[in-house]
Amino acid sequence: MSFAERLNYYIEKAGLSSKELSELTGISQPTVSRYRNREKETKMTDSQLSLLATALSSRCEEGADEIFTSLKSQLKKSEYDTELIVSKLNILIDEFDINVSELAKWLNFDSSYLSRIRNGQRKPSDTNSFVGGVSSFFSRKLSKSEQLGSLCELIGSDGANVQSDLAAWLYSGEVKKNDRIFSFLSSLDSFNLDEYIKEANFEKIKIPTLPFTLPTSKYYYGIEEMRKAELDFFKIAATSKSSADMFLHNEMPITDIAADNSFFKNIMLATAVILKKGIHLNVIHNLDRPWHEMMMGLEGWIPLYMTGRISPYYMKSASKGPYKTSLHTAGTVVLEGGCADGFPKDGRYYLTTAKSEVAYYNRLASHAISLAQPLMKVYDRGSGSQYLARLSDISLVEGDRRIINSTLPVYTLSAELFSEICSQNGISAESAKKMYADVLRQRRKIEEVISKNTYLEEVRVLSEEEFKSEKHRLCTSDFFFDVSLCYSFETYKKHLALTEEFASDFKNYKLRKNENAFFKNIRIVTVADKYAIISKELSPTIHFVIQHPKLVKAIAGFEPEAAEQQ
């Protein structure tokens, strides 16, 4: 008798339906149905078996322990879904920036053997022992760290028994890796710089003229005082006469410090004042944080990135020591400090306006920038020619491309249809001809790329009903046209047909149509896990060219359909 047959035996004996068993156990009805149909038994855990056994025993003469043992006996170790387990292990390693050699040593594995398991080339000889070892490593490694809360959030644990909860998650828990990257991309998609400027009264921001004075040097202790130190630093920088570049770098855990929403808003406003003053910001982001912290930080900076007045960097190899540091410098003030990793409540900041110390720390900041790598390059209309030159260089990179498009690709348009759309939008025939010359140049470059590399284009297919409720535009962000070109439903249908024809003409070009409205205002391009390019069509037209491996990998692995369901 198989597991499914034995489970169905007890369910029928108890006189329960799948829906009733779901309500008694808290296990979703589709999952119960898969258990009953032999589709899910490879992902069973002891905690789920215990829930089933307890619920069934309430309606059967057999006790919960007897039913549990009976069901358990039908599960074989070899039936565990090792591919699922390994994919979750890789999420844990990426999320918490784990040293793989350290994990291998804990598991008593050779590092190369663990790497082969992670790459799917080998399977653990004993899945239960492997899961137990991984669970004990992570629960102990993160037990005294701020990251423990992040782990509990990821695996759905209340913190009472993290090790066993982690084991259960590895076997069959839900993966929510897309959440934060989806939030980041959605923020870009919906952000409107004009509205942000209006709400923040950016144009009405007045640069303070009276100097903000403090003692020459001052110490700040604990989270509350550190928040005050950050604001004091910005106040002094904003009211000073210096227009020297500002430098910001912070390795310290940000979750507790940024938990106060009013503080976070004040910091963003203070940064806006600095930008308004004409000071350029050089920011070294710490991307070796836990995943959710990294994305939370980047998401908060989106509005300011879109001003084009910030240069973001990252360090290829961040410090792995027990002490995390922070350094902010400006022309007349420095804020320096740190804390033991995971203990921001015992952190300390030191603020000084002493000229000799400011000069010293500014030299340190300059050295740090020389050692850093550009996190992303932001291109707007003013740097459009530089962006097109960068695209030309990237087109030479070998490797597969993946494009998530908010609409259809403009380079599949014929000259006739482009002219028709331009005419409907009040564009003269002469202007349309000049604009299409740019479109044609892009098509030739795309065809050259497709001749050597796979090109997967995901497009959102629009219904006639959607055209009745709002306008839909051509994706022209790569061209920095001075006009916005809108479809009619008829021209849209013609363009879709041309795109399908283009796909049939080029074997390396794959067209994936999707009816979900995941994004409306951005296009995402990933190139061979080396580049991620996020282009925003409107408000304003702007392009982010990203090279940081961890961020590129996350964007490349993003699945719009999965995010839509979350």
Summarize the structure.
This protein is of the alpha+beta class. The protein is 50% helix and 14% strand. The chain has 24 helices and 15 strands.
CATH topology annotation of the largest domain: Endonuclease, Chain A
Radius of gyration in whole Å, from Cα?
28 Å
How many DSSP H or I helices? 24
Question: For the record, what CATH class of the largest domain applies?
Answer: Alpha Beta
What tags apply to this protein structure?
566 residues, alpha+beta, 24 helices, 14% strand, Endonuclease, Chain A, eight-stranded mixed sheet, 434 Repressor (Amino-terminal Domain), disordered C terminus, seven-stranded mixed sheet
Describe it.
- This protein is α+β, with helices and mostly antiparallel strands.
- The protein folds into 4 domains: 3-79, Orthogonal Bundle (434 Repressor (Amino-terminal Domain)); 82-118 and 127-175; 206-374, Endonuclease, Chain A (2-Layer Sandwich), CATH 3.30.870.10; 379-565, 2-Layer Sandwich (Endonuclease, Chain A), CATH 3.30.870.
- The protein is built from 24 helices and 15 strands.
- It has helices at 3-14, 18-25, 29-36, 46-57, 64-72, 82-95, 100-107, 111-118, 127-141, 147-155, 162-172, 178-190, 193-200, 222-239, 261-276, 291-305, 355-371, 384-394, 415-424, 429-450, 464-469, 489-505, 549-556, 560-565, and strands at residues 217-221, 246-250, 281-285, 310-314, 323-329, 334-340, 348-352, 373-374, 376-379, 401-405, 455-460, 509-514, 522-527, 531-536, 542-546.
- The chain is globular, with a radius of gyration of 28 Å.
- The two termini are 37 Å apart.
